[in-house]
Amino acid sequence: LVIFHFSCTTLQCRQSMDSSRSEVFDSDKQPSVKSRYRMNTYLDVPEDKTGKFYLLFTLKERISELIASLKVFEAHGINIVHIESRPSRSHAGCYEFLIECNAMDKQVKSVFKTLQDMAENVTIQTFGPIHECNGAMISYLQVINTNNSNIIIDVVPWFPKKIKDLDLFADRVLTYGSELDADHPGFKDEVYRKRRQLFADIAHNYRHGQPIPRIEYTKEETETWGVIYKELKKLYPTHACREFNHIFPLLEQNCGYSEKSIPQLQDVSDFLKECTGFTVRPVAGLLSSRDFLAGLAFRVFHTTQYIRHSSAPKYTPEPDVCHELLGHVPLFADPNFAQFSQEIGLSSLGAPDEVIQKLATLYWFTVEFGLCEQEGKRKAYGAGLLSSFGELQYCLTDEPEVHPFNPEITATTEYPITSYQPKYFLAQSFENAKEQLIKWASAISRPFNIRYDPYTQRIQILDNTEILNHVVHDVRNDLQLVESTLMKLST
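Structure for phenylalanine 4-monooxygenase, as requested:
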């Protein structure tokens, strides 16, 4: 058995601003579409450009097989830079070898073909390279199962398998630090740009498991926060959903939420961890839709620490700490909403690009601009609404269209990004929305299913009976606990 992972050159590199993380506030001045988002723009990457490749393959515990495999690389002129080995956990009597090499795409394809011809039964998994293009990371995974003459080919994008893997792309933002567009309110303010660079450096250097650095916000920054906080808090009791209004006072009690202070991300993360297992980690700016949604799969929310420019407190061309902490954070402390958000993230792992676009649209119309029905009235639960006192009032009027939430329809609905939404989708409840999403996501084309293990914070790929037996064992234990508890309650 040979399991061979290699990287194939990706022909397109996304240079798009992530529409699922926009925020529009009241302002006479609206940015150009170009400055807001660069959607669906691609750059060509030369197909035969020499690059670094990482190959992982599994061989029987015989030195002759390793020698034969290495000769394949030599025969195709591929320079091996580094090699490691370890006993295979998934294949008894085998060793896994990790090889780092420099090669061209056509050379790797030749090695692929040769190794395929050498083996009688081959399972080959090819993990795509990490190509950097304007700060974006593009990775692909191709799974090919070959059993004699039967060939099945599925193309699956790379995705993180453990929570620490988020470190691999958390700094691959589509906007960064002091590099602001010319129409940004803080473009000509050197002091503001230096502050943005400071926040970007903190996020860039952060790694999973580290405490989030505490920020000493300036008086000007705190006053900007206070203007927004004061206006929004007046609207929450009548416009926000029940869950939001239950949690917001708890954030004031436990995380330092107030008109006169900007909460620290570490305090917020600790609070969310105790409530639902969600955490936050600093990010320098907008991530791609795929990367941002992948974080949600691990119950991690990527959060900016910078604040909008003081000259325009009602408007920001990008998500800032006001949008994150006032709009998003409160509902991540609600178990049903947290589960709904994670389901969106899990659905994105290994999904094709066209599905990612649909998931980003679902995210937009739910987590960002979602409405729900409570006690016969419409209430807001989307972060884009809960952090915008203008649109928070507008969304509950008779002016916009309101339709029942249906993932099949919602996922393909177009939306504006520089104005209030003309259309919203109304969920019966977070639980109902989650059930609809899970049913919709079950049709996503993947050659396997996945499961999140909260104990190890890893993604389990359910692609063989041995792993499924472990899942069944866990389910049985849970059912036994439920049965035992019911018996005690009935006595």
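The chain has three domains: 12-157, 164-441, 449-490.
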